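Quick board copy: two proteins, each given as sequence then tokens.
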Amino acid sequence: MDEVLTMMREAAGRTADLVESVSGDELSRPTPCSEYDVKGLINHLEWAMTLFESVGEGGGFPPQKEYTGDFRARAERMLAVWERPETWEGTCEAMGGLPKTTLARMALTDLVAHGWDLAKATGRDFQASQAAVELLVEFVAQQAPVGRKMGAFGPEVKVADDAPAFDRFLGLIGRDPAWKP
């Protein structure tokens, strides 16, 4: 719990910093997550934080709302839920009976993947800790077939076996590490 929670906090902080640095004229830029422009991606991130807050508390899927610009506040509420040890116990029926520990890793995946998406779309940098990236490579490699079937990941982008771990993570979730707007 503690290791993954620390990674979630770090990724949420870095992603929040990115979100808050986006200017109005950048909102229509394309992103590596082809279904979203920058504004749509931030909207998705806001919803994802509300989702992982809800399912962490044993709730269901919240309705999708329009972009509000309150990503950091939503991330902080989500993290507050996951700071409670009982949140990590059991399964989540709204997510098909997935273990809560899997949901935390899914939240981390969203934060890192979409943080990178946002950084690439706006010409900024995004870093994740080596420990987080290594955990995500292992997690995503296990989850990729189901993730693709559910539409959470795109088709795998082949990267060299000796590529940096972050590039391997991106390839597994269907992102091209060399993507440019």
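And the next:
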Amino acid sequence: MVNINYDLRYVAFLDLMGFRNMVDQSTIDADILNTINQALDYTGYVQYNNYHGTFSLVELGKQVTSFSDSVVISYNASMPGGGFYVLIDIVHICINLLGLGIPVRGGVTVGKLIHTERKCFGPAMVRAYLMESQKAKFPRVLIDSEVMKHDLENPGAANTVEYEADYLSQIVQKDAIDNYYFLDYLKQDEEFDEFESYIDYMLGIKEFIIRKLSIYQLSTHKEDEEIYMKYVWLKNYYREYPKVCVNLQTDVR
């Protein structure tokens, strides 16, 4: 029998929010069925590209697993700047899936993990999953403070600790609701090819949020009330960026 050992890895567990309800509705709504198909094509591509694409990062320690409505990404924690890299990966996933009409909820931590193309398990995976399922609540990706601490102890090869801290501060913020750190993906206009593309994207997200709020606002079902509050959180997060001149104005309870 071959002896194996856990690696110390950054790991992100991501969940496509509202996926179950979308699947239920997809039997009678062709648009929702198409959205699900596009989203799973995208997450499947993220996994495929890591192992078989031109810019595969497996040699740098990146691993990706996509299954049903979940995505797991991990990096070797000894890789310089690995914490920042995994967060940037998640930024792109959040941006792309929200653009398709599916918000992302998740958790990111660092710890013991075994992750290959065929399997993924370990205490860090369990912790990231519990962060997503029990703490995130809203369409946000929570960041364990240990991720930032460990990344600052292993900054990017060309970075000082100060530079690495500055980079992290630009993609992570603290939620005033509960003081949890979460990924600030809507702020990342530099991840778009052009600023005009970012403006167009944010306008589209504005319309998406308004549409979802109007759907759930008047419902008296408890489950719909919970979903409504998730979109209220997303609305409030969106409104933190007035520089794009697309402030969300809509009546809410």
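Board note added afterward: The chain has eight helices and eight strands.
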